[in-house]
Amino acid sequence: MGKRMGRYTVVMERKPAILGYAAICGKKESEGPLGAAFDLTYEDTTLGEKSWEKAESRLQKEAVNCAMKKAGVTAGAVDYIFAGDLLNQCISSTFGLRSLGIPFLGQYGACSTMAQTLAMSSFLVDGGMANLCVAVTSSHFCSAERQFRFPLEYGGQRTPTAQWTVTGSGAAVVGKGEGVPYVSAVTVGRIADLGIKDAANMGAAMAPAAAQTLRDFLSDTGTNPQDYDLILTGDLGEVGSKLLYEILSRENVSIQENHQDCGLLIYDRQAQDVHAGGSGCGCSASVLCSVILKKMQKGQLRNILFMATGALMSPTSSQQGESIPGVAHLINIRI
Amino acid sequence: MGKRMGRYTVVMERKPAILGYAAICGKKESEGPLGAAFDLTYEDTTLGEKSWEKAESRLQKEAVNCAMKKAGVTAGAVDYIFAGDLLNQCISSTFGLRSLGIPFLGQYGACSTMAQTLAMSSFLVDGGMANLCVAVTSSHFCSAERQFRFPLEYGGQRTPTAQWTVTGSGAAVVGKGEGVPYVSAVTVGRIADLGIKDAANMGAAMAPAAAQTLRDFLSDTGTNPQDYDLILTGDLGEVGSKLLYEILSRENVSIQENHQDCGLLIYDRQAQDVHAGGSGCGCSASVLCSVILKKMQKGQLRNILFMATGALMSPTSSQQGESIPGVAHLINIRI
Fold first, then answer.
1. Domains and CATH numbers, chain A
2. What 8-state DSSP symbol labels residue B288?
3. Residue A201 needs a FRET pair 20 to 30 A away by CA distance; which of A245, A297, A305, B162 works?
4. Using CA atoms, how far apart are residues A202 and A308, in angstroms rounded to an integer?
5. Rounded CA gap, A113 and A85, in Å?
6. Would an 8 Å CB–CB cutoff place A123 in contact with chain B?
7. d(CA B225, CA B251)
8. pLDDT tens, position by position, B251-283
9. What's the ipTM?
């Protein structure tokens, strides 16, 4: 069972292992630098479904099925599935996963959802409440644009700080195992809100939360950024990453040397016109559940911090003049 | 730490206790049969805020503060807050709770959220990852109507199967303690979808999930409905409750004698024009966190099953012709 370390961190005692993982993405992602690392990509963003929402549901279902297959487990053996997404009432998850018959616990952490679902899965395996859990999330450029911004047909101009929502899903099977990456510690974040109101600048809204959670973890564990092979943020993008460096530099913490951001890894920003980078729950999920975990399995990365950030707003809250609260959850993964 | 019993149930080993609880409601709820049991009620459904969404956020914040006060704990001592609501991107929770500085884990279970947040809180206390957790949820008639149905100004006619969304919030503080109600076991539900498509008949959509989870729990624990003082469903209302009896009667399971539904308890259906009963996350939350837990503390109820049900749909999924998946989570609470 987990052991609390410091104020905000839980260190796992049973080493919940990532037994299988998968990432399923869309066309633009297949054309980016990580295209070859995904388990499956679709040329058609509808995946042959009648709506983008149904397409997103299918991404999630396929990612879960693929991850379970790679882990060598069936849905009937999974105790809990933790799933969430950006759509109103998390319908990508509920409709995508309803046929699996796995006890379902919907999570809402906006783009921090992959870290949150991994945290919950690790907690329950470590606590003995579960033998096997699945963590999954997704996003889809077209379903997100029409829900959060403008109808695609409108052809709105995007600002330079805007990010491109990843069409993709990542899933991980967590259980007991040896010789595979495992979750070593978890720091759940507090909501941070410095008053950013620009819904086209999520990186700026989320950076303070990332700084806060990283600070909490380092302080709780008495470690330094240099102790980790990689500090991987979710989707701060170009703007948010720079702000994170700036906030941390005021406290003499430097992470530039071993920091990467999933939103900057997934696309070629010179060639793919994504402005400040990729975003969406599916961004960090598909990057973690492909190239990163593969590198860990090969021993090329041995001790990483995966920290996904979320902007906890809605179009309604923005229309009512509210600022954008952010949250970041951190998962220390080791091999 | 939790111990699995049967396929779907976890029995707690450390007896996570409900150290404090509170319910804050609106005017219509104050005029119902449980009006005197709530900690605070508001005559004005805006609570003096500028929008209904902000009013709902405030309900949640006040419920949490009141529950913490009654438990004798401060926000700084709480390890995790599990919160969710019906609004898009769960903004009642994120905006209501952002100032508390408690590590935040957003949950989405629609109207099953009170059971889900209690389950997660109990798991983490039982597993040793947390000493103190808060479980909270809310709903608001006006914010729900305009988001899920019609603008209030439209004055749409309600169908006989429709339910009335409760304006209210319930919160519970879960930790280690003696002499107070504690969570004895948890059964997390699987998604059930029998093809109901009528968004004005949530009771029918949720009843199959309730039957399934209750069956799972009884089978896992080898107990009968008659072993419990009360089987309390969340908000099946008149229609859903009858359907639940019907489904269970086919399997020779009878719960009528000790079943109650929060949606039928909170309003006087003769006098208050709520059609099939109350609904919304705040319905089961405010009923549990007032009259029910008070009766348990007095020893008038000693062993109950609290089973909140959720309809995992959105207006978008309904507009796209989808049916309504349901889920139900069960919490066995004892004294």
1. 3-175 (3.40.47.40), 182-334 (3.40.47.40)
2. I
3. A305
4. 13
5. 7
6. yes
7. 13
8. 999 999 999 999 999 999 999 989 999 999 999
9. 0.97
